[in-house]
Design goal:
By secondary structure, the chain is α/β, with parallel strands linked by helices. Helix content is about 25%, strand content about 30%.
């Protein structure tokens, strides 16, 4: 598996291209991602969104049109593709496949596991491919996603953090912003975040 990373836009949202068996999966194409993605893909097969916020989906529609590939997003965030919440004039896009909960998918024979961790958004998910988690805005290096946006939920975030604490296998985490980390490293920090959310 080869992973290409490029931070996009003012929010420096990480766009990822994951290449397996000469097939390219595009994860979270944010603001201005189209040129970079087109230049760095040879055989694109899908666009995968971790959640529906504008800085992760901005280039969805343009890339779908250029590359003729389907868009995947967890069903509870579908509404954000047509009714963006956090920015003006986000290009609307239409999902081709709505992921349901913790759903295991095979996209052109590549196993893609969505894991649903609501809180930052209702449909917030990580995308698991082999031993890697593309964690979107759920878990970062030393931090977690915000829970004070419209349709965010501190209560759901606590449930999701407790859920992720129970996972025993380690994964390399590639977040929506910033540098990579590991699940085991972040699990040591998450109890403090759980208490912080409870008290704020």
């Amino acid at each position: 598996m080869e992973i290409k990373i490029q931070p996009m836009g003012a929010t420096q949202t990480n766009c990822y291209i994951v290449t397996i068996d000469n097939k390219d999966l595009i994860i979270d194409p944010g603001i201005g991602a189209t040129k970079w993605v087109v230049k760095n893909t040879k055989n694109p097969i899908a666009i995968l969104n971790t959640h529906g916020h504008y800085d992760h989906v901005w280039s969805n529609a343009e890339l779908k049109e250029k590359l003729k590939v389907p868009i995947y997003i967890q069903k509870d965030d579908e509404f954000m593709l047509t009714k963006p919440l956090l920015a003006q004039n986000t290009p609307p896009s239409k999902a081709d496949y709505l992921v349901n909960g913790d759903e295991e998918l095979y996209i052109d024979n590549i196993k893609v596991q969505y894991r649903h961790f609501p809180g930052h958004t209702p449909g917030n998910s990580i995308i698991e491919i082999e031993d890697v988690w593309f964690s979107g805005d759920f878990i970062f290096d030393g931090s977690i996603g915000r829970w004070d946006f419209p349709f965010s939920s501190g209560e759901d975030m606590i449930k999701s953090l407790n859920k992720v604490m129970k996972i025993e296998k380690d994964f390399t985490l590639y977040p929506g912003h910033g540098v990579s980390t590991t699940l085991k490293r972040e699990q040591k920090r998450l109890p403090l975040w759980i208490e912080y959310i409870k008290n704020n």
